[in-house]
Amino acid sequence: MKAVSALALVFSLLPTLACGQTDSKKSEYFNQNVADSNPLRNEQARELDAYIQKMAADQSRFRKLFQPDYSSADAFAKSAEAYRGAFCQSIGYPPPGKRPDLKASYQQIGEDSIGVYYRAMFPILPGVHSEGIFILPKSLKGKAPLIISMHGGGGSPEVALFNGGANYNDMVRGAVKRGYIVYAPQHLFRADEFPKDIRRQIDDRMRLIGTSITAVEIAKITYAIDELIKRPEVDASRIGMVGLSYGGYYALVTPAIDPRIKVAVSSCYFGVQEGRYEEEELSVPPDFRFMDRMTLFNDADLVALICPRALQIQAGATDRPSHREKGKQLAPRAKAYYEQLNLQDRFEHVIFEGGHEFNDASAWAFVEKHL
């Protein structure tokens, strides 16, 4: 009986012994309440926030990258080449992929008293076309200047051209009336068979392959110019570009890359993203968030890639303040590039009586003066 009792006692103590051994093993390792390190993670967030703000305000990288030579207009343009290269690298221009060895096509779609209208297609990348409306003025005699007329967000060449042109006014036909040849490209903002955010989706996917929608849409203009200047009617030495809103963005960044564009009018865009960035950094739309957008490539300094060529910036007095006020602050900085070359007449910042629309009067007077 004693042996049985002793055995029972041993078995009854086994759970206690096991727990004792487990507690002993736990005590071999250092331990701490995880929440005790929460202040360190908060400090990381504060540090990174402060770092971003400091780098956003630091101009030393820009000054190192771009050292303008004001000894002459040609010297200035040459001194901007490294800056232009950095901008191209930032947006992924030129886009990857071999350009197709295919001919451009022009299909006549109509005519009226001022011009003949064509649907133009230019193969620019594997399986990708630049598509838009091409117009030859009926007043054409010999060669004539070429105007790129760029629609805005959610728009199209058709919206800017037909039924009065909406808020584009005479941004397309105004050029034809003055004897200019016009190419009005189509850019991607909506597509009936695709999600509403198709532009953002395409841009996100493009960044994963080394480019961006900005770079591809610039190529839809510059590669089309390569083909258009082969036409006997086009004077390759006289190319201009006009654009409203998103088109105003492209009327700034496209001439910044392509020096063949001798005069540009950017309407209702200049300074918009800088204003958004000041209020809330991430309110800047995704397709404007390319690398170094707010440190090296803000709107005022991108003007240095257009100078000494002619540029007009315009904004409506009754447009939303976000499309005007920050631009007013940045304009003197942009103008300074021209002033130091004694070329003040090649830069205009115009606040016109009107809203979010293209101002024909100031735009075409400027284009005619400089083209």
Automatic annotation (TrEMBL):
Keyword set includes Ion transport: no
Protein name as catalogued: Dienelactone hydrolase domain-containing protein
Pfam family, one: DLH
Molecular function GO labels: hydrolase activity
UniProt xrefs under Gene3D superfamilies: alpha/beta hydrolase (3.40.50.1820)
Signal as UniProt keyword: yes
Sequence ranges assigned to domain Dienelactone hydrolase in this UniProt record: 166-271
Signal sequence bounds: 1-20
Annotated keywords: Signal
InterPro entries assigned: AB_hydrolase_fold, Dienelactn_hydro, FrsA_esterase
